[in-house]
Give the backbone structure.
Amino acid sequence: MSFWLSKSLSEMSSVEWESLCDGCAKCCLHKLEDEDTGDIFFTNVACQLLDLESCQCRDYENRLAKVPDCFKLTPENLSQQDWLPETCAYRLLYEGKPLPSWHPLVSGNDQSVHLSGMSVRGRVVAEQSVQPDDMEDHIVHWVD
């Protein structure tokens, strides 16, 4: 039986936990919060460390030190992270939902997230190319 079906999130090893990430990179995009409502809006502006082709962090081990807004997701803080994309494996499993067929753990293909169009590959811009005051012009609504 697949580990994500037989273990709770808190029972997973660090390797199992990390493997839940599908590599979509939606969590590596800048997000804006409406100060009045608290609503979170995704932009198509990638973190400075995101490799736009592979959708992987270029310095994953040091990301928290290099990017002040970067966040380490854990089983302990997962319940407070309502900004995670609806397709995020961590969110899906926390909500008791199955992983989608395009998730690499299900498909057996580490490129399936890209082939299915569920990653940000080809749909984002580098942080360095956007002025902070123009961030609202980059709000996107991902179709999940």
